[in-house]
Amino acid sequence: MNIKELIQETKQRIEDIQIETAKELEEFRLKFLTKKGELTELFNAFKEIPNEEKREVGQLLNQLKQSAQGKFDERKEVVEESVGEEVKYDKTLPGVNVSQGSRHPLSIVQNNMIDIFKQMGFSISEGPEIEDDWHNFSALNFPENHPARDMQDTFFIDKDISLRTHTSSVQVRVMENEDPPIRTISPGRVYRNEAISARSNSFFHQIEGLYIDEGVSFADLKQTLFLFVQQFFGEKTKVRFRPSYFPFTEPSAEMDIYLGTATEEDYRLTKGTGWLEILGCGMVDVNVLKNCGIDTEKYSGFAFGMGVERIAMFQYGIKDIRTLFENDIRFLEQFKSLG
Ligand code: PHE
Predict the structure, then answer these.
(1) How far is the CA of 304 from the centre of ligand 1 (A)?
(2) Domain extent at residue 39
(3) What is the pTM of this model?
(4) Best probe residue, ligand 1, of 166, 224, 242, 249 (max atoms within 8 Å of C-beta)
């Protein structure tokens, strides 16, 4: 083979070589482009050829060198890029787990309750958690130094300021600021200085309702709460009202729903009676209406209040109230599908 044929043959081989990996690229470099490579050998042979052929062969050799270098540069770029891609998109790696949040069980229950009252035309009102004596107690007909204040073990900040013990305080604010008809519910967090146990915590959540208009009666109260219970607990749910006492309502009652005692859990929850107390209610005391500037000749109203935790615990079979506030993901994740 003369040198021209050799150059042609080498050129063809270089063109035919497949370079896909970094290893193949390096092999190519060693074979053709280093001092000990094939091209150097050809350049050495070039020195031996007769002068009249040098011009033509020299050109061919330069072209060969350029195409070898060109191929190396081009493949280098491709190989390096694909190495990067392999790292970025290694399809065999396990996926990154994007964990999705979920609503807190208390929010789920609270939202369900709010939806029902909204349908009945109740608005939502909110107020401060740090409250003055007037809105939490005095306006609600708790006489000063009256033992009724002990019913709600209060966290006092100073003599006149405390953490609200119920969201009835919000309703006082609504009555002071709005004219009847008033139809509102106040959801929110409340605080009581109670010994912490599986059944009670130093804070919890309430939804309280207030309806004031001309001619509102106890029958309206019963019907509203009955409708709520049917929608929330199911149409066949039985309820009963028991007489009770609250300073701000007269007459006052507590409402129970009937669970029966068939299961051990229902027996435990209802202390063997079959009835579970879910809320307090009553006709707003005339003194409260007066304190809030409402014309008692014209208007009357009812109020009710219930604890969200108690109902959530009953609905989801939660045995310890404290689990609601520990934010243990393993607990919270169980409510994913509900909210
Ligand atoms: N505020 C009462 C409580 O916290 C509940 C209640 C509200 C009772 C309205 C009667 C009427 O226990």
Answers:
(1) 6
(2) 3-88
(3) 0.71
(4) 166
